[in-house]
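Why does residue order matter? Because the sequence determines the fold. Keep that principle in mind as you read this record.
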Amino acid sequence: MPARPAARGIKPPEPGPIAAYKAILKDYIDRRPAGMRARIAIALGKHKSFVSQLTNPIYPMPIPARHIETIFDICHFSPAERRDFLKAYQRAHPERTPEAMQERGAPARRKTISLEIPELSDPRKQRALESLLREFVERVGRLLD
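Structure:
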């Protein structure tokens, strides 16, 4: 069966506020060197497909506020880029305040390190191990603050 031609006179819906800040993020990341999405995925402990969904305005999935500062750090966003993105993010999510916007002085800083762990044969156990290590580091970090 042949594909139907596009209907004339029908405009696509206006992009919503989430699509607006994701378009800004996509534009900024596209200006960075190749491999940036992979570096973000590693820093967030996620798959590259997750980062692709975060940076694609077509997907309505919002960017979790806890990931914004990490993305800023990995991509080395300028103060102007941060400000523009955060304005759009705040318009889309007035109830959320990313760490980068909190008024407690300097933004929360994170450092990414690499850790070698055994590769397990069971994918569920592998995810559980990685999750456990991530949670452990976050708890230790909160204790030291």
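The first helix runs from residue 17 to 30.
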